[in-house]
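Sample intake sheet
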Amino acid sequence: MVPAADVLLQDAGTTLRKLMRIDPVRLQRMLSFGEALAQVAMADGSVDTREREAMAASLQAQGVLSAVESELVVEFALANAGRWQASAQSEHDRTELAAALNAVAMADNHVSAQERDAIERVLRRGPDDAMEPDDA
């Protein structure tokens, strides 16, 4: 049974309020992380349920977001994947991001050449050139 629209809106409003209470720097990192995951998930032209679930699990594993909040961030990320800005500033962040990107790519049991290319592009880019075309 699908909940009534007013219940869904109330739940969405509650989740948004919870997200807004997260430290803004940490929230931006989660949103950027999610957008990077979305780029890989979308690289082969479609995003299936397993890829969405892997994205949410990767975000939830960071220990900041609940399952519902992670799913909302995934939806934001997929909607904004084209505007991704690299958030991985440290080697630790880049390693975490690489592992999560690979997990999303592998979620459907196949890593396409497009997904591998997207992972490489995401990891190569920094905050200032995230939207620039590749020079190669």
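Comment: The chain has a mean pLDDT of 76. The first helix runs from residue 5 to 21.
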